[in-house]
What does this fold into?
Amino acid sequence: MRLQIERINIGGLCAGSRTGMSDHVLYVDFGELERIILTDDRIKAAKLDIASPGDRVRIVNVVDVIQPRCKVDPGGTDFPGSLGKLRIAGEGRTRSLEGISVVLSNRYSKRSYSSLIDMFGTGAEMSRYGIMTHLCIDPVPSDGVGERNFESAVKLAGLKMAVHLARAAGRHPVDRTEVHELNLARLPEGALSHLPRIAYYYQLYTPQHDYQGISDPILYGSEVTGLLPTLLHPNEILDGAVISGHTIRELDTYTIQNHPLVRELYRRHGTDLIFAGVVIGVASLEPVQRERMALMAANLVSNVLGAEGVVLTKTHGGMPHVDLALVAEACENAGVKTTLFIQLVHGVGSTADEASFSADSLDAIVNIGQTQEKIRLPKADRILGGNPATTICNPDFAQKAGDEEIEIEGFLLAGVFDVLGGSKIMAVDY
Amino acid sequence: MDRKRLRVVHYLNQFFGKEGGEDKAHIPFLIKAGPIGAGMVLQKILGERGDVVATLICGDNYLAQGGEKASREGIELILPCKPDILIAGPAFEAGRYGVACGGICKAAHEKLGIPAVTGMYEENPGVELYRKEVYICKTERSTVKMAESLKLMANLALKLTSKEKEGKLLSGEKIGRPEEDHYFPRGLIKNEIVDKTAAERSVEMLLAKLQERPFQTEAKRPELQPFYPSPPIGRDLSDCEIALISDGGLVPKGNPDRLRSRGNLIWAKYRIETFWPREFPAAALEVSHTGYFPVHVLEDPNRLVPVDILRDLEKEGIIGRLHPFFYSTSGCTTSQARCQEMGEEIAKELWEKKVDGVILTST
It folds into this structure.
């Protein structure tokens, strides 16, 4: 499979009388964008804004961040199964706009958590989204549309906008081309056969937070609760087969589109290792299913992909640590060496208190940080995606988006922590 | 950048403060302008960076016996000096002095909101008492290395008071790791900005593990205590009183005891007859727990806490009696240590009430 990502640097995003690109500046016609969003009759209205680095702007109720991307080949589909018709993602040419994103807010969500992006001060310094320009979308549901149905409409609107912006870049020259090519069926490749074969186990999802008991569709438009271990080509992940759910928690669609661990394994493929492929799986609430997942996933990693080593990443939450550790332990039992990601949640105690597992073989742990560390943010002049009275989650006291100062837990500031390994943060005993 | 000179108050006991030996161990607080004794060395180390504006002196026994109240007297004396930081000791291996240094540092931090640093030998009882609340530099046993110890303490003091955001911590604090800045670990977990992404680190670590090269894991191994199930009750259940406990966060509507939905540290008990009437509207209950979406529990809380079954068993005479209270806590990212304490607290109460057996249900 060969995927060519053609990256175009965007220097600015401006409102204009038509949507198009000239000299690295992307002009968008808000009227046109709005008309596209309103073709979905679940949405009554949509407020569109541009937020640029340095603006004293706070975007609240953020439920996803998406990189503008579109297929360039004739017949290619964008976000197949989620937006476009079903095709296998990961083949051909994809245009990608760098330095901008589509930020989705849902101020009508009653979920416990949504994220926040600041375009200024501490919040912008800490987040990779603080240095990008964003097209912010803040839709209003049509009368009688249920919460979950509206969430799907919001996501779809975001995906449509991401594709529309990328298409608007037209024939603009490409700044950087990235080729991801891996022929899994023919590995290892001759002279490289001495390199260790490394697989990736990607824990996609946990059903424990299913809002209203309903799962988010994140894989080719399908929900994944109950999914058994499945093989994916890494290019599928980079090219829109997987999107994030309707909540961020250290993972958004932008991050999946640029999956840091998949790209790292690609980067080292052929020099330090052979990238042997990806197994996806999910966490489970049920012990027998957990064991089934662990044994079947380990068997795919070991006996189907023939891997000698595997890196395992986890989805947000405490319980998925157990699922991940069981998969890792089953891999070690099958003779496959592991490193696994964990996420810490306490500021007091020791890093030893945080691992929910203790198998001797699981001795190579990578931590993505203590994601509940509090961050103080200064007053914003303008609030997008909500208003100054919008409640900002804090377990200890009530606070509002327009307050003089707010304090939030790190995992609610989008673009700081990253369950897929993109952040240079590590929690340490002090 | 032109740095403001740090205003330092130095704390010494009667001996180091040159008031006398054991015969003066009872003297109350007194304050003197400028540095005294070891404070001269401290001033030399600080140089242009700071001034020891005053020295606070107190007898070891006065402070050791006076506890927090005595510490507050000391704090009131230094208040007019407007210190940026308090440096205490070092106390080396002197036990009473170490406890006094820890106490006065803690008080300075709590009452004045300023950082405080002291120094002790690892066996000083002040270390275990105060290391979680106070920065305590590691010193030798004896006073021979006074200057070296003060250098470590001054270095730490300067970092704690620095306003520059150039440290490696996400929070912007400049403090280094315990081993880098030579202080006793405080039992905190902080986020560092490191050179490589987690993705890069994980692949490097895996290659090292495969090639049997040394590697450094990023989380200490948990020290889990083995858990053995209790033996069966061993007598006729029809004589026994059975209690129900759950960590699923089930509480009356409004959450009157304020169980936190995440990182909760408390438990509560509710009388089953009122909390759980036979015909109840689910709207009378709520779940304070963010680790799961509680739709199924709110539809029927008996799915979480089997009150209905236990009532049936009671009626059928299979169990003697259902304990009248339901014990509730929320077990979502709660630290293991606190979970153990809560378990012991609930067990003690059930033991006193002569409950024979418990059914624990989780999510």
In short: The CA atoms of residues 387 and 401 of chain A lie 7 Å apart. Chain A has two domains: 2-177+375-408, 187-373.
